[in-house]
Amino acid sequence: MFGTFRKHQTWLWAVIITVIIFSFVIYFSPYSKLNNTRRGPANLGSINGERVSEEEYIRARREVFLRSFFTTGNWPNEEAMKQGGEIDRDTYQWLLLIQKQKQLGVHISTEVVAQAARSMISQFQRSGINSAEAFLKQVLEPRGFGADDLERFVRHYIGVQELISTIGLGGKLVVPQEVRDLYQREHEEVATAAVFFSSSNYLAGVTAPPDAMMQFYTNRQAIYRIPDRVQVSYVKVGLTNFQAEATQTMAKMTNLDTQIEEAFKQGGTNFLRDVKAQSLPEAKVKVREARLKEIETQGARKQAMEFATPLFDMEPLRAENLDKLAKEKGLVVQVTAPFDLQDGPKELEVGSDFAQKAFARTPEDPFAGPILGPDGAYIIALVKKIPSEIPPLDQIRARVEQDYKINQALNLARTAGTAFYQTLTNGLAQGKTVAAMCAEAKVQLVEMPPFSLSTRELPQVEEHIPLNQLKQIAFTAPLGKVSPFQMTADGGVIVYVKSRLPLDEAKMNASLPAFANYVRQSRQNEAFNEWFRKEAEKGLRDTPLNQPRTPPALSSSPKAKKS
User: Fold this and answer.
1) What is the pTM of this model?
2) Nearest residue to 467 (alpha-carbon basis) of 459, 476, 479
3) Looking at 400-482, which runs of residues are DSSP E strands?
4) Taking Cα atoms as reference points, which of 184, 510, 232, 268 lies closest to residue 371?
5) Among 112, 217, 290, 359, fewest CB within 10 Å belongs to which?
6) What are 294-331's pLDDT values in tens digits?
7) With b meaning 16 or more CB within 10 Å and e meaning fewer, what string describes 140-178?
8) What residues form DSSP beta bridges with 118?
9) CA dist 387 → 161, 234, 300, 340, 342 (Å)
10) Do 438 and 195 meet the contact criterion of CB atoms below 8 Å apart?
Protein backbone atom coordinates (compact mmCIF):
# COMPACT_ATOMS: atom_id res chain seq x y z
CA MET A 1 0.00 0.00 0.00
CA PHE A 2 2.79 2.43 0.87
CA GLY A 3 5.74 0.53 -0.58
CA THR A 4 8.75 -0.59 1.39
CA PHE A 5 10.14 1.57 4.18
CA ARG A 6 13.63 2.00 5.48
CA LYS A 7 14.90 1.48 9.00
CA HIS A 8 13.00 3.41 11.66
CA GLN A 9 14.43 6.89 12.28
CA THR A 10 14.78 8.03 15.86
CA TRP A 11 12.97 11.33 15.33
CA LEU A 12 9.92 9.67 13.84
CA TRP A 13 8.28 8.66 17.10
CA ALA A 14 8.36 12.22 18.36
CA VAL A 15 6.77 13.33 15.10
CA ILE A 16 3.93 10.84 15.41
CA ILE A 17 3.02 11.65 18.99
CA THR A 18 3.32 15.42 18.63
CA VAL A 19 -0.06 17.12 18.62
CA ILE A 20 -0.45 20.20 16.45
CA ILE A 21 -0.96 23.03 18.92
CA PHE A 22 -2.43 25.79 16.77
CA SER A 23 -6.18 26.17 16.99
CA PHE A 24 -8.30 23.95 14.74
CA VAL A 25 -11.98 23.33 15.40
CA ILE A 26 -13.11 20.55 13.08
CA TYR A 27 -16.63 20.01 11.80
CA PHE A 28 -17.59 17.43 9.23
CA SER A 29 -19.98 16.61 6.44
CA PRO A 30 -21.38 13.14 5.67
CA TYR A 31 -18.63 10.87 4.36
CA SER A 32 -20.50 9.74 1.28
CA LYS A 33 -20.73 13.34 0.07
CA LEU A 34 -17.11 14.33 0.62
CA ASN A 35 -16.38 14.70 -3.08
CA ASN A 36 -19.35 16.80 -4.06
CA THR A 37 -20.73 18.47 -0.95
CA ARG A 38 -19.04 21.63 0.22
CA ARG A 39 -20.11 24.65 2.16
CA GLY A 40 -18.80 27.79 0.61
CA PRO A 41 -19.01 29.87 -2.54
CA ALA A 42 -18.01 28.70 -6.02
CA ASN A 43 -15.07 31.13 -6.05
CA LEU A 44 -12.50 29.48 -3.81
CA GLY A 45 -10.22 32.50 -3.71
CA SER A 46 -6.44 32.49 -3.49
CA ILE A 47 -3.76 31.93 -0.87
CA ASN A 48 -0.77 34.25 -1.12
CA GLY A 49 -1.75 34.96 -4.72
CA GLU A 50 -2.12 31.30 -5.75
CA ARG A 51 -5.63 30.35 -6.86
CA VAL A 52 -7.29 27.49 -4.96
CA SER A 53 -8.70 24.84 -7.29
CA GLU A 54 -11.73 22.68 -6.59
CA GLU A 55 -9.53 19.58 -6.45
CA GLU A 56 -7.09 21.17 -3.98
CA TYR A 57 -9.94 22.26 -1.72
CA ILE A 58 -11.62 18.85 -1.66
CA ARG A 59 -8.34 17.04 -1.01
CA ALA A 60 -7.41 19.38 1.83
CA ARG A 61 -10.82 18.99 3.42
CA ARG A 62 -10.54 15.22 3.31
CA GLU A 63 -7.17 15.52 5.06
CA VAL A 64 -8.74 17.70 7.73
CA PHE A 65 -11.29 14.95 8.36
CA LEU A 66 -8.56 12.32 8.67
CA ARG A 67 -6.58 14.55 11.00
CA SER A 68 -9.54 14.72 13.35
CA PHE A 69 -9.96 10.96 13.30
CA PHE A 70 -6.34 10.26 14.15
CA THR A 71 -6.02 12.97 16.80
CA THR A 72 -9.34 12.40 18.59
CA GLY A 73 -10.13 8.75 17.86
CA ASN A 74 -13.62 9.67 16.67
CA TRP A 75 -15.14 9.95 13.25
CA PRO A 76 -17.19 13.05 12.48
CA ASN A 77 -20.91 13.07 13.09
CA GLU A 78 -23.84 14.47 11.14
CA GLU A 79 -24.66 17.02 13.85
CA ALA A 80 -21.33 18.77 13.37
CA MET A 81 -22.29 19.63 9.80
CA LYS A 82 -24.89 22.05 11.16
CA GLN A 83 -22.12 24.32 12.45
CA GLY A 84 -21.55 26.56 9.43
CA GLY A 85 -18.21 28.03 8.42
CA GLU A 86 -15.79 25.95 10.47
CA ILE A 87 -15.13 23.40 7.73
CA ASP A 88 -14.07 26.16 5.36
CA ARG A 89 -11.84 27.85 7.92
CA ASP A 90 -9.98 24.66 8.83
CA THR A 91 -9.60 23.62 5.21
CA TYR A 92 -8.08 26.95 4.19
CA GLN A 93 -5.71 26.85 7.16
CA TRP A 94 -4.60 23.38 6.09
CA LEU A 95 -4.14 24.58 2.50
CA LEU A 96 -1.93 27.41 3.78
CA LEU A 97 0.21 24.93 5.72
CA ILE A 98 0.58 22.72 2.64
CA GLN A 99 1.64 25.75 0.63
CA LYS A 100 4.24 26.72 3.25
CA GLN A 101 5.69 23.21 3.17
CA LYS A 102 6.27 23.60 -0.56
CA GLN A 103 7.73 27.09 -0.24
CA LEU A 104 10.13 26.09 2.54
CA GLY A 105 11.23 22.92 0.80
CA VAL A 106 9.79 20.47 3.31
CA HIS A 107 9.82 17.05 1.67
CA ILE A 108 8.83 13.84 3.42
CA SER A 109 10.05 10.66 1.74
CA THR A 110 7.73 7.82 0.80
CA GLU A 111 9.56 5.53 3.22
CA VAL A 112 9.01 7.87 6.14
CA VAL A 113 5.34 8.33 5.21
CA ALA A 114 4.91 4.55 5.11
CA GLN A 115 6.55 4.08 8.51
CA ALA A 116 4.50 6.86 10.06
CA ALA A 117 1.24 5.55 8.59
CA ARG A 118 1.92 2.04 9.87
CA SER A 119 2.68 3.45 13.32
CA MET A 120 -0.56 5.42 13.32
CA ILE A 121 -2.55 2.41 12.19
CA SER A 122 -0.96 0.19 14.86
CA GLN A 123 -3.16 1.80 17.52
CA PHE A 124 -6.12 -0.11 16.02
CA GLN A 125 -4.64 -3.57 16.57
CA ARG A 126 -6.93 -4.14 19.53
CA SER A 127 -9.83 -3.81 17.11
CA GLY A 128 -8.46 -6.64 15.00
CA ILE A 129 -6.85 -4.39 12.35
CA ASN A 130 -3.35 -5.76 11.87
CA SER A 131 -2.32 -4.27 8.53
CA ALA A 132 -2.62 -1.15 6.41
CA GLU A 133 -4.76 -3.12 3.94
CA ALA A 134 -7.21 -4.11 6.68
CA PHE A 135 -7.39 -0.52 7.88
CA LEU A 136 -8.15 0.61 4.35
CA LYS A 137 -10.89 -1.98 3.83
CA GLN A 138 -12.53 -1.82 7.26
CA VAL A 139 -12.15 1.83 8.25
CA LEU A 140 -11.43 4.11 5.31
CA GLU A 141 -13.31 2.69 2.32
CA PRO A 142 -16.71 2.42 4.10
CA ARG A 143 -16.46 6.17 4.71
CA GLY A 144 -15.39 7.10 1.23
CA PHE A 145 -11.64 7.50 1.82
CA GLY A 146 -8.86 5.80 -0.12
CA ALA A 147 -5.18 4.97 0.25
CA ASP A 148 -4.21 8.15 -1.60
CA ASP A 149 -6.14 10.24 0.96
CA LEU A 150 -4.31 8.57 3.84
CA GLU A 151 -0.87 8.83 2.24
CA ARG A 152 -1.42 12.49 1.38
CA PHE A 153 -2.65 13.29 4.88
CA VAL A 154 0.27 11.54 6.61
CA ARG A 155 2.78 13.31 4.36
CA HIS A 156 1.32 16.73 5.10
CA TYR A 157 0.80 15.97 8.78
CA ILE A 158 4.47 15.09 9.25
CA GLY A 159 5.31 18.14 7.16
CA VAL A 160 3.46 20.32 9.61
CA GLN A 161 5.46 18.82 12.45
CA GLU A 162 8.60 19.69 10.52
CA LEU A 163 7.32 23.25 10.16
CA ILE A 164 6.73 23.44 13.90
CA SER A 165 10.24 22.15 14.60
CA THR A 166 11.83 24.54 12.13
CA ILE A 167 9.83 27.71 12.73
CA GLY A 168 9.82 27.22 16.49
CA LEU A 169 13.48 26.29 16.75
CA GLY A 170 14.41 29.52 18.52
CA GLY A 171 11.82 28.85 21.19
CA LYS A 172 13.58 25.63 22.21
CA LEU A 173 16.74 27.46 23.30
CA VAL A 174 16.31 27.45 27.09
CA VAL A 175 19.33 27.51 29.41
CA PRO A 176 19.43 25.11 32.41
CA GLN A 177 19.29 27.88 35.03
CA GLU A 178 16.15 29.31 33.42
CA VAL A 179 14.55 25.87 33.58
CA ARG A 180 15.39 25.59 37.30
CA ASP A 181 13.98 29.06 37.94
CA LEU A 182 10.79 28.28 36.07
CA TYR A 183 10.37 24.97 37.88
CA GLN A 184 10.85 26.66 41.23
CA ARG A 185 8.37 29.37 40.35
CA GLU A 186 5.76 26.82 39.25
CA HIS A 187 6.22 24.30 42.07
CA GLU A 188 7.26 26.25 45.15
CA GLU A 189 4.41 25.99 47.66
CA VAL A 190 3.15 28.60 50.09
CA ALA A 191 1.70 28.06 53.56
CA THR A 192 -1.35 30.28 54.03
CA ALA A 193 -4.37 30.89 56.19
CA ALA A 194 -7.46 32.89 55.33
CA VAL A 195 -10.37 34.72 56.87
CA PHE A 196 -13.55 34.38 54.81
CA PHE A 197 -16.36 36.89 55.11
CA SER A 198 -19.49 35.15 53.85
CA SER A 199 -22.81 36.90 53.24
CA SER A 200 -24.64 33.92 54.76
CA ASN A 201 -23.20 34.85 58.18
CA TYR A 202 -24.94 38.23 58.04
CA LEU A 203 -28.23 37.28 56.43
CA ALA A 204 -30.16 36.58 59.62
CA GLY A 205 -29.63 40.11 60.89
CA VAL A 206 -30.93 41.86 57.76
CA THR A 207 -34.40 43.40 57.66
CA ALA A 208 -36.27 44.73 54.62
CA PRO A 209 -37.88 48.16 55.23
CA PRO A 210 -40.63 48.84 52.65
CA ASP A 211 -39.11 52.07 51.36
CA ALA A 212 -35.65 50.56 50.95
CA MET A 213 -37.06 47.50 49.22
CA MET A 214 -39.11 49.67 46.83
CA GLN A 215 -35.98 51.62 45.92
CA PHE A 216 -34.08 48.35 45.44
CA TYR A 217 -36.83 47.06 43.11
CA THR A 218 -36.95 50.32 41.15
CA ASN A 219 -33.20 50.34 40.57
CA ARG A 220 -33.18 46.74 39.34
CA GLN A 221 -36.37 46.45 37.32
CA ALA A 222 -34.48 45.13 34.31
CA ILE A 223 -33.45 42.08 36.34
CA TYR A 224 -37.09 41.25 37.04
CA ARG A 225 -38.29 41.67 33.48
CA ILE A 226 -40.16 38.60 32.24
CA PRO A 227 -39.06 37.72 28.67
CA ASP A 228 -41.39 37.20 25.75
CA ARG A 229 -43.50 34.09 26.20
CA VAL A 230 -45.68 31.92 24.05
CA GLN A 231 -48.52 29.50 24.74
CA VAL A 232 -49.40 26.62 22.44
CA SER A 233 -51.93 23.85 22.23
CA TYR A 234 -50.72 20.43 21.21
CA VAL A 235 -51.57 16.87 20.32
CA LYS A 236 -49.09 14.31 21.57
CA VAL A 237 -48.54 10.86 20.10
CA GLY A 238 -46.73 8.96 22.86
CA LEU A 239 -43.93 6.47 22.23
CA THR A 240 -45.46 3.96 24.62
CA ASN A 241 -48.34 3.52 22.16
CA PHE A 242 -45.91 1.63 19.92
CA GLN A 243 -44.05 -0.38 22.53
CA ALA A 244 -45.72 -3.70 21.71
CA GLU A 245 -45.23 -3.23 17.97
CA ALA A 246 -41.58 -2.25 18.48
CA THR A 247 -40.97 -5.29 20.71
CA GLN A 248 -42.33 -7.59 18.02
CA THR A 249 -40.13 -5.94 15.39
CA MET A 250 -37.09 -6.33 17.63
CA ALA A 251 -37.82 -10.03 18.10
CA LYS A 252 -37.40 -10.50 14.34
CA MET A 253 -33.90 -8.98 14.39
CA THR A 254 -32.12 -12.27 14.99
CA ASN A 255 -28.74 -11.00 13.80
CA LEU A 256 -28.64 -7.82 15.90
CA ASP A 257 -26.24 -9.27 18.48
CA THR A 258 -23.92 -10.37 15.68
CA GLN A 259 -23.96 -6.87 14.24
CA ILE A 260 -23.16 -5.37 17.64
CA GLU A 261 -20.28 -7.80 18.15
CA GLU A 262 -18.87 -6.92 14.73
CA ALA A 263 -19.13 -3.22 15.50
CA PHE A 264 -17.30 -3.84 18.78
CA LYS A 265 -14.52 -5.71 16.98
CA GLN A 266 -14.02 -2.79 14.61
CA GLY A 267 -14.47 0.08 17.05
CA GLY A 268 -13.29 -1.31 20.39
CA THR A 269 -13.28 1.32 23.14
CA ASN A 270 -14.46 3.96 20.67
CA PHE A 271 -17.57 1.89 20.03
CA LEU A 272 -18.20 1.47 23.77
CA ARG A 273 -17.77 5.20 24.28
CA ASP A 274 -20.20 5.98 21.47
CA VAL A 275 -22.93 3.77 22.98
CA LYS A 276 -22.04 4.86 26.55
CA ALA A 277 -21.24 1.35 27.74
CA GLN A 278 -18.44 -0.18 29.79
CA SER A 279 -18.50 -3.66 28.30
CA LEU A 280 -19.82 -5.63 25.33
CA PRO A 281 -22.76 -7.13 27.29
CA GLU A 282 -23.76 -3.66 28.48
CA ALA A 283 -23.35 -2.37 24.91
CA LYS A 284 -25.81 -4.99 23.67
CA VAL A 285 -28.38 -3.80 26.20
CA LYS A 286 -27.78 -0.15 25.33
CA VAL A 287 -28.01 -0.71 21.59
CA ARG A 288 -31.19 -2.77 21.95
CA GLU A 289 -32.77 -0.07 24.10
CA ALA A 290 -31.81 2.60 21.58
CA ARG A 291 -33.11 0.53 18.67
CA LEU A 292 -36.39 -0.13 20.48
CA LYS A 293 -36.87 3.58 21.12
CA GLU A 294 -35.98 4.35 17.51
CA ILE A 295 -38.71 2.03 16.27
CA GLU A 296 -41.20 3.54 18.74
CA THR A 297 -40.22 7.02 17.59
CA GLN A 298 -40.72 6.06 13.95
CA GLY A 299 -44.19 4.82 14.74
CA ALA A 300 -45.10 7.94 16.71
CA ARG A 301 -43.76 10.24 14.02
CA LYS A 302 -45.64 8.38 11.29
CA GLN A 303 -48.93 8.63 13.18
CA ALA A 304 -48.31 12.30 13.96
CA MET A 305 -47.64 12.96 10.27
CA GLU A 306 -50.88 11.22 9.33
CA PHE A 307 -52.68 13.60 11.69
CA ALA A 308 -50.75 16.69 10.57
CA THR A 309 -51.16 16.26 6.82
CA PRO A 310 -54.88 17.13 6.65
CA LEU A 311 -54.37 19.75 9.37
CA PHE A 312 -51.86 21.68 7.27
CA ASP A 313 -54.17 21.38 4.23
CA MET A 314 -57.27 22.83 5.91
CA GLU A 315 -58.37 26.21 4.57
CA PRO A 316 -58.12 28.77 5.95
CA LEU A 317 -55.17 28.10 8.26
CA ARG A 318 -56.44 28.71 11.78
CA ALA A 319 -55.12 27.54 15.14
CA GLU A 320 -58.55 26.31 16.19
CA ASN A 321 -58.41 23.73 13.40
CA LEU A 322 -56.22 21.63 15.70
CA ASP A 323 -59.07 21.25 18.20
CA LYS A 324 -61.55 20.53 15.43
CA LEU A 325 -59.50 17.81 13.76
CA ALA A 326 -58.40 16.27 17.07
CA LYS A 327 -62.05 15.96 18.12
CA GLU A 328 -62.87 14.18 14.85
CA LYS A 329 -59.94 11.77 15.40
CA GLY A 330 -60.71 11.19 19.06
CA LEU A 331 -57.45 12.75 20.21
CA VAL A 332 -56.87 14.94 23.26
CA VAL A 333 -55.70 18.53 22.85
CA GLN A 334 -53.76 20.06 25.73
CA VAL A 335 -52.47 23.59 26.32
CA THR A 336 -49.09 24.51 27.78
CA ALA A 337 -48.52 27.14 30.39
CA PRO A 338 -46.81 30.24 28.94
CA PHE A 339 -43.08 29.61 28.47
CA ASP A 340 -40.05 31.55 27.28
CA LEU A 341 -37.59 30.66 24.55
CA GLN A 342 -34.73 29.72 26.86
CA ASP A 343 -36.50 27.37 29.26
CA GLY A 344 -39.34 25.99 27.14
CA PRO A 345 -42.46 24.38 28.62
CA LYS A 346 -41.67 23.05 32.08
CA GLU A 347 -44.48 20.50 32.05
CA LEU A 348 -43.28 18.72 28.90
CA GLU A 349 -40.22 16.56 28.25
CA VAL A 350 -39.07 18.21 25.05
CA GLY A 351 -35.91 19.68 23.58
CA SER A 352 -35.02 23.27 22.71
CA ASP A 353 -36.39 22.87 19.16
CA PHE A 354 -39.91 22.73 20.63
CA ALA A 355 -39.60 26.28 22.00
CA GLN A 356 -37.86 27.51 18.85
CA LYS A 357 -40.64 26.23 16.60
CA ALA A 358 -43.31 27.56 18.97
CA PHE A 359 -41.80 31.05 18.93
CA ALA A 360 -41.64 30.98 15.13
CA ARG A 361 -45.41 30.58 14.85
CA THR A 362 -47.73 33.39 13.74
CA PRO A 363 -51.53 33.63 13.35
CA GLU A 364 -50.98 33.15 9.61
CA ASP A 365 -48.64 30.19 10.17
CA PRO A 366 -49.91 28.62 13.40
CA PHE A 367 -48.82 24.97 13.12
CA ALA A 368 -45.57 23.03 13.53
CA GLY A 369 -44.67 19.38 13.81
CA PRO A 370 -44.14 16.62 14.22
CA ILE A 371 -41.68 17.77 16.88
CA LEU A 372 -39.91 14.75 18.36
CA GLY A 373 -39.31 14.56 22.09
CA PRO A 374 -37.96 11.80 24.34
CA ASP A 375 -41.45 10.54 25.06
CA GLY A 376 -43.46 11.34 21.94
CA ALA A 377 -44.17 13.33 18.79
CA TYR A 378 -45.99 16.66 19.05
CA ILE A 379 -48.15 18.70 16.70
CA ILE A 380 -48.51 22.25 18.04
CA ALA A 381 -50.69 25.27 17.32
CA LEU A 382 -50.19 28.84 18.46
CA VAL A 383 -52.56 29.99 21.21
CA LYS A 384 -51.05 33.39 21.99
CA LYS A 385 -47.84 35.34 22.36
CA ILE A 386 -47.24 37.35 25.51
CA PRO A 387 -44.86 40.30 25.21
CA SER A 388 -42.10 40.97 27.70
CA GLU A 389 -43.17 42.81 30.86
CA ILE A 390 -41.93 43.96 34.24
CA PRO A 391 -44.20 42.55 36.95
CA PRO A 392 -45.31 44.97 39.67
CA LEU A 393 -43.62 44.66 43.06
CA ASP A 394 -46.69 43.12 44.71
CA GLN A 395 -46.51 40.13 42.34
CA ILE A 396 -42.88 39.30 43.14
CA ARG A 397 -42.50 40.78 46.61
CA ALA A 398 -41.11 37.59 48.16
CA ARG A 399 -38.41 37.30 45.51
CA VAL A 400 -37.46 40.96 45.71
CA GLU A 401 -37.29 40.78 49.50
CA GLN A 402 -34.98 37.78 49.38
CA ASP A 403 -32.77 39.47 46.80
CA TYR A 404 -32.65 42.64 48.90
CA LYS A 405 -31.60 40.75 52.01
CA ILE A 406 -28.89 38.83 50.18
CA ASN A 407 -27.58 42.06 48.68
CA GLN A 408 -27.50 43.76 52.06
CA ALA A 409 -25.81 40.77 53.69
CA LEU A 410 -23.18 40.83 50.93
CA ASN A 411 -22.53 44.52 51.60
CA LEU A 412 -22.24 43.86 55.34
CA ALA A 413 -19.76 41.03 54.75
CA ARG A 414 -17.60 43.22 52.54
CA THR A 415 -17.75 46.15 54.92
CA ALA A 416 -16.67 43.89 57.77
CA GLY A 417 -13.85 42.43 55.68
CA THR A 418 -12.54 45.85 54.69
CA ALA A 419 -12.61 47.03 58.32
CA PHE A 420 -10.89 43.91 59.60
CA TYR A 421 -8.08 44.33 57.06
CA GLN A 422 -7.31 47.71 58.67
CA THR A 423 -7.36 46.04 62.08
CA LEU A 424 -4.88 43.41 60.89
CA THR A 425 -2.44 45.86 59.29
CA ASN A 426 -2.49 48.11 62.37
CA GLY A 427 -2.03 45.13 64.69
CA LEU A 428 0.85 43.65 62.69
CA ALA A 429 2.62 47.02 62.88
CA GLN A 430 2.27 46.81 66.68
CA GLY A 431 3.72 43.30 66.79
CA LYS A 432 0.45 41.40 67.24
CA THR A 433 -0.06 38.03 65.57
CA VAL A 434 -2.75 37.33 63.01
CA ALA A 435 -4.05 34.39 65.05
CA ALA A 436 -4.40 36.54 68.18
CA MET A 437 -6.25 39.30 66.35
CA CYS A 438 -8.65 36.78 64.76
CA ALA A 439 -9.37 35.25 68.16
CA GLU A 440 -9.95 38.68 69.67
CA ALA A 441 -12.35 39.65 66.85
CA LYS A 442 -14.08 36.24 67.03
CA VAL A 443 -13.45 35.49 63.34
CA GLN A 444 -12.21 32.12 62.10
CA LEU A 445 -8.69 31.84 60.70
CA VAL A 446 -8.82 28.91 58.26
CA GLU A 447 -5.56 27.01 57.72
CA MET A 448 -5.28 26.05 54.04
CA PRO A 449 -3.32 23.17 52.52
CA PRO A 450 -0.01 24.17 50.91
CA PHE A 451 -0.32 24.91 47.20
CA SER A 452 1.78 26.16 44.29
CA LEU A 453 1.14 27.78 40.93
CA SER A 454 1.05 24.30 39.41
CA THR A 455 -1.68 23.08 41.81
CA ARG A 456 -4.72 22.05 39.76
CA GLU A 457 -7.37 21.65 42.45
CA LEU A 458 -8.00 22.46 46.10
CA PRO A 459 -11.59 21.30 46.78
CA GLN A 460 -11.85 22.45 50.39
CA VAL A 461 -10.86 25.97 49.40
CA GLU A 462 -12.71 26.25 46.09
CA GLU A 463 -16.01 26.18 47.99
CA HIS A 464 -15.17 29.74 49.02
CA ILE A 465 -12.94 31.17 46.30
CA PRO A 466 -11.80 30.18 42.78
CA LEU A 467 -8.35 28.58 42.87
CA ASN A 468 -6.87 30.98 40.32
CA GLN A 469 -8.03 33.97 42.36
CA LEU A 470 -6.49 32.46 45.49
CA LYS A 471 -3.18 31.91 43.65
CA GLN A 472 -3.15 35.49 42.41
CA ILE A 473 -3.67 36.80 45.94
CA ALA A 474 -1.22 34.47 47.67
CA PHE A 475 1.66 34.89 45.24
CA THR A 476 1.46 38.70 45.17
CA ALA A 477 1.10 39.33 48.91
CA PRO A 478 4.37 39.83 50.90
CA LEU A 479 5.57 37.01 53.14
CA GLY A 480 4.45 37.35 56.73
CA LYS A 481 1.77 39.87 55.73
CA VAL A 482 -1.89 39.81 54.90
CA SER A 483 -3.40 40.57 51.53
CA PRO A 484 -5.83 43.46 51.13
CA PHE A 485 -9.47 42.42 51.41
CA GLN A 486 -10.49 40.78 48.13
CA MET A 487 -14.12 40.48 47.07
CA THR A 488 -15.54 37.10 46.10
CA ALA A 489 -18.95 36.08 44.81
CA ASP A 490 -20.07 35.25 48.35
CA GLY A 491 -18.43 38.17 50.14
CA GLY A 492 -14.67 38.36 50.40
CA VAL A 493 -11.41 37.03 51.83
CA ILE A 494 -8.17 38.12 53.48
CA VAL A 495 -5.20 35.80 52.90
CA TYR A 496 -2.32 35.56 55.38
CA VAL A 497 0.86 34.37 53.63
CA LYS A 498 2.87 32.69 56.37
CA SER A 499 5.84 31.29 54.46
CA ARG A 500 7.19 29.73 51.30
CA LEU A 501 7.97 26.06 51.72
CA PRO A 502 11.36 24.68 50.60
CA LEU A 503 11.39 22.57 47.45
CA ASP A 504 12.28 18.90 47.58
CA GLU A 505 15.67 19.07 45.82
CA ALA A 506 15.76 15.37 44.97
CA LYS A 507 12.28 15.51 43.46
CA MET A 508 13.14 18.68 41.52
CA ASN A 509 16.34 17.23 40.09
CA ALA A 510 14.51 14.09 39.00
CA SER A 511 11.75 16.15 37.37
CA LEU A 512 13.92 18.74 35.63
CA PRO A 513 14.65 16.79 32.40
CA ALA A 514 10.96 16.23 31.69
CA PHE A 515 10.12 19.79 32.76
CA ALA A 516 12.83 21.15 30.45
CA ASN A 517 11.29 19.26 27.53
CA TYR A 518 7.89 20.67 28.45
CA VAL A 519 9.27 24.22 28.51
CA ARG A 520 11.04 23.79 25.18
CA GLN A 521 7.94 22.30 23.56
CA SER A 522 5.77 25.12 24.91
CA ARG A 523 8.19 27.79 23.68
CA GLN A 524 8.42 26.06 20.31
CA ASN A 525 4.64 25.92 19.95
CA GLU A 526 4.28 29.57 21.01
CA ALA A 527 6.81 30.65 18.39
CA PHE A 528 5.08 28.59 15.70
CA ASN A 529 1.62 29.82 16.66
CA GLU A 530 2.71 33.44 16.44
CA TRP A 531 4.30 32.81 13.04
CA PHE A 532 1.21 30.99 11.76
CA ARG A 533 -1.13 33.72 13.00
CA LYS A 534 0.75 36.34 10.99
CA GLU A 535 0.95 34.11 7.92
CA ALA A 536 -2.78 33.38 8.07
CA GLU A 537 -3.68 37.08 8.37
CA LYS A 538 -1.70 37.78 5.22
CA GLY A 539 -2.13 34.59 3.23
CA LEU A 540 -5.88 34.00 3.73
CA ARG A 541 -7.09 37.55 3.15
CA ASP A 542 -8.20 36.75 -0.42
CA THR A 543 -10.23 33.66 0.48
CA PRO A 544 -13.99 33.41 1.11
CA LEU A 545 -13.18 33.35 4.84
CA ASN A 546 -13.00 37.14 4.69
CA GLN A 547 -16.21 37.52 2.70
CA PRO A 548 -19.64 38.00 4.35
CA ARG A 549 -21.82 34.92 4.29
CA THR A 550 -25.19 34.93 2.57
CA PRO A 551 -27.94 33.80 4.95
CA PRO A 552 -29.95 30.78 3.86
CA ALA A 553 -33.20 31.44 2.04
CA LEU A 554 -36.30 31.14 4.18
CA SER A 555 -39.57 29.63 3.01
CA SER A 556 -42.34 32.20 2.71
CA SER A 557 -45.14 29.77 2.03
CA PRO A 558 -47.61 29.61 4.93
CA LYS A 559 -48.59 26.09 3.91
CA ALA A 560 -45.08 24.65 3.97
CA LYS A 561 -44.99 21.53 6.12
CA LYS A 562 -43.16 22.01 9.42
CA SER A 563 -40.72 19.59 10.91
Assistant:
1) 0.59
2) 459
3) 446-451
4) 232
5) 290
6) 888 889 999 999 999 999 888 888 999 999 999 988 88
7) beebebebebbbbbbbbbbbbbbbbbebbeebbebeeee
8) none
9) 56, 21, 33, 10, 15
10) yes
